[in-house]
């Protein structure tokens, strides 16, 4: 009996909006419970005393089907009563706080203060929201990514990304915990026992690199079947500062740069059909180079790309067994 | 030229809803800026990570004319989007959190974390809301009142008051800071320079006693003209647990018990007309005992009682000058 696509046990590494698209596709294709997602928390921060985890919320809201379908983050049918009153208090308004979203932040803050881990809080929310996949923060202790900018010095990720709309020129990225994150045990266990690891088309520097900043996790990746999907198409990111950041840090903004970043543990790399002219070979240093339609607009696009990734994984597994 | 009522410089000590009624009357009668209010913060607490100051909010919202006119606390025209979503997260719902009110708590929390004092935050809000009177927290450091209950042990004031609806039998009240509160310098200055101190008809044990838990403030009261209004009428509190608490702690629930609590520094005591049969004399240990209509339903009731208090103060001052 051959393995079917939906039987695969998959771990996805993901950031926010971009990664959530492929993660949704994987969740919809795989059997319930067969997908685990390890999510960047380098952009977590405290604002107004609230513990906010933007990428975790984006992934969970997306899988729960309650995400704002236009923005791709935040909740659908959101209201802004609190924000309106905050404005009247001359409060900073650069970070959008919808009312329902605030409830999520309040309850997370309360539970963390009661001694719950971020993993436990995330699991609790997923259960309430009927999410079947397993969503893990990349770290159960704060492990923030700071952005060292030329003109304004060091700032938190959200200040850089939201407040300053990623306009400041970046000199370097600084991890709050250079000694590494604390990946939840259950996430490492999921990695150990999975058939396939998928690196979502999230920002390699800001979303994926912080997840990889852990020795145990990186070591595990070396021994696993790993497929990455490029977030860079024709030298551009579909959303966010990936291409701009590559330039500022001295890299060519190109899918090949993404490939190079992951090459030590990568088995296959999926780039967009639009980049086809730039890739001559189907194999690069033993890594299978695979062309696909990676722009995901509709849910069927997301499911199609997920199937492409899973089929490629299955093919590689079957070849290895022969 | 004789002093007019509205020229008096007055400091009021107050708790929440009951005290706010007389405070509003005083604010409306006195010249703008002539009233200072020192407000109980013994019932302040942190909930969902938010710094909440219920009595300060009640006083400020009342003076700003934005208080919910039915409840006497919280904001008028409030919405409950956040609370609705909190319910769906199976979050504790015993403390009502209106959306606009949450904005106040969020901004206070943010400013406190930026290093502002509670006095500064309160002044800032009052300026935004057009409040002319000076509102001070009784302490710029947390100084919480804990309630030691027979069946459930020690609990925070809000747990006792809101979560358990003041039903648990109380063995004692415990001040988090037995060494005293940190009264803001500007509040002490207002006390030093005022003509008259008014103790509002707030709960003597839960709202006024915590304010009096400061040597400097108490010493100042000894040298000032002080008038108190009884919150106990015919052995009952109009609102809240004052009478029940008196019984549990071994006191008779009666206006005379209130008088006794303040007698060391009191110059005059106002009790309700309904209690007239219980008071034989017009003077008790040099304290003038004055009968008045103290139940304040309408704004004109509040203004009328404020005028009564101020007129009594003026009479005492004029006698002293003769």
Helix and strand arrangement:
2 copies of one chain form a homodimer.
Chain A: E1 10-14, H1 17-29, E2 35-39, E3 45-47, E4 50-52, H2 54-64, H3 81-88, H4 99-113, H5 118-128, E5 134-137, E6 145-149, E7 153-156, H6 157-163, E8 170-175, H7 185-193, E9 196-199, H8 204-212, H9 215-222, E10 226-229, E11 232-233, E12 236-237, H10 242-248, H11 255-262, E13 268-272, E14 283-284, E15 287-292, H12 299-321
Helix pairs in contact in A: 1-2, 1-12
Integer tally of domains of chain A? 1
The secondary-structure element order of chain A is EHEEEHHHHEEEHEHEHHEEEHHEEEH
Number of helices of chain A: 12
Summarize the amount of helix of chain A as a percent range. Answer: 40-55%
First-to-last CA distance of chain A: 14 Å
* Name of the CATH superfamily of chain A: CofD-like domains
Mean pLDDT of chain A: 94
Main sheet overview of chain A: 8 strands, mixed
CATH class of chain A: Alpha Beta
CATH topology of chain A: Rossmann fold
The count of β-strands of chain A is 15
Greatest interface and its participating residue counts: A-B, 29 and 29 residues
